[in-house]
Write a structure and sequence with these properties.
The complex is a heterodimer.
Chain A (H helix, E strand, L loop, with lengths): L3 E9 L19 E5 L2 E9 H4 L1 H7 L3 H21 L2 E3 L5 E2 L2 H10 L1 H11 L2 E10 L1 H20 L4 H37 L2 E4 L5 H4 L5 E10 L3 H15 L4 E9 L7
Antiparallel strand pairs in A: 1-3, 1-4, 1-5, 2-3, 6-8, 6-9, 7-8
Chain B lengths: L2 H5 L7 H8 L17 H20 L13 H41 L1
């Protein structure tokens, strides 16, 4: 084995010995705690021949490598998060020696304290809303066409032709706007139930592997005792919007990636 | 969809759900090892470029990867079928050669008697 590095997964303020049974990213070395002032960094050893700067240069844009290791990494984070409250680190935060991890805890101590306060008794969830515009348009179009055709009554043929052209090109815009409006109103209603919500970038279909476009992507943090209220709301909305081409994907609880500093 | 189905659904999520968290979020602390990973946006562009260039290449008639057995499973199957046929031919040829040998030996014996 070459030089050793320490991969830092997260910071925690609780000790659970079962975490030390979890295998790290290399599937060889197990996780362990580095303690400082009653806070801990959870790390595992990595062989820098495989995961160091040189090795990673070719890997950093290798989609296959990333896919495989991202999944492994998240599995580890979820396994730890099942047992203890954690502040998750960005992927591939690596240090040379234990002392450096203690330094990090020392330097960010008060920030970590306020992060733990923020997430206490709460959980992070993700909501993604997709909409099939073709389905939505079909339902929406009937009404609009009726309205438009009424407006054409009595107009000369030539004028009607150009008005129809304009109508068609404006229709797609109208459809998009209506979809966004609905998605945003769902987000606003969710915001009333949760503690805090963040709007994230929409993911393209190349990443989601879903043909229909994403129209909303939010992460939120919610009091554990409000989760039932939230589920009831989502169920209601899903039933109402399904016929218009909407589908809602809720996932969680996640380690608080969106709500830690 | 009740509380249970929400509580346990981190399995079976898409890759995007994972990447947008571990690449774009989480606490950012400079490690000792400097590793620059693409963020989700850059990754999306890269994947798009790969897909586009494959589509474009096919459009203009470049599709050599379809017959390269290390890249295409269809080509691999066709190659394997060819290999099997060749083996069969070799076996038949060997059988004929042995038959031939036996016949020649018998002929020699018969000629020797005469």
């Amino acid at each position: 084995m070459g030089d050793k590095g320490l991969l830092l997964y997260c910071i925690t303020n609780s000790y659970d010995i079962e975490v030390t049974n979890i295998l790290g990213l290399d599937q060889v070395n197990k996780l362990y705690y580095i303690e400082h002032k009653e806070m801990y960094g959870i790390v595992s050893d990595l062989d820098l021949d495989k995961y160091g700067e040189e090795a990673m240069e070719s890997r950093s844009e290798d989609i296959e490598w990333l896919t495989e290791n991202a999944k492994k990494f998240m599995d580890i984070m979820l396994a730890v998060h099942e047992k203890i409250s954690i502040i998750p680190m960005k992927f591939m935060t690596i240090f040379n020696i234990e002392h450096r991890v203690k330094n990090i805890i020392e330097e960010n101590y008060h920030i970590f304290i306020s992060d733990f306060e923020r997430i206490k008794g709460r959980q992070e969830y993700s909501v993604k809303i997709y909409c099939d515009n073709k389905v939505f348009k079909k339902n929406f179009i009937g009404e609009e066409i009726q309205k438009f055709e009424k407006s054409l009554v009595g107009k000369p043929k030539g004028a009607a032709f150009f008005l129809k052209k304009k109508f068609d090109s404006e229709l797609d815009n109208k459809v998009q706007n209506k979809i966004c409006k609905i998605a945003n109103s769902i987000a606003e209603n969710i915001q009333k139930i949760v503690v805090d919500m963040k709007s994230n970038k929409l993911l393209a279909k190349e990443i989601t592997n879903i043909e229909i476009p994403m129209v909303l992507n939010c992460a939120f943090i919610i009091d554990i005792n409000k989760i039932e209220k939230f589920s009831i709301y989502i169920e209601k909305i899903e039933n109402e919007c399904k016929k218009d081409g909407f589908s809602i994907e809720v996932s969680g609880p996640w380690p608080p990636y969106n709500f830690c500093e | 969809m009740g509380v249970n189905s929400i509580n346990k659904s981190t399995s079976g999520v898409g890759l995007g759900e994972i990447l947008e968290k571990i690449l774009d979020k989480g606490v950012v602390i400079a490690g000792d090892i400097s590793i620059s990973l693409a963020d989700v946006e850059l990754l999306t562009i890269k994947i798009r470029l790969v897909i586009c260039s494959i589509d474009k290449a096919q459009e203009i008639g470049i599709d050599w990867w379809k017959t390269d057995i290390s890249l295409s499973s269809k080509a691999k199957i066709e190659q394997e079928e060819k290999d099997v046929k060749m083996e069969e031919e070799r076996f038949k040829t060997k059988q004929l050669e042995e038959q031939n040998k036996l016949l020649l030996e018998r002929l020699e014996k018969l000629e020797a008697i005469e």
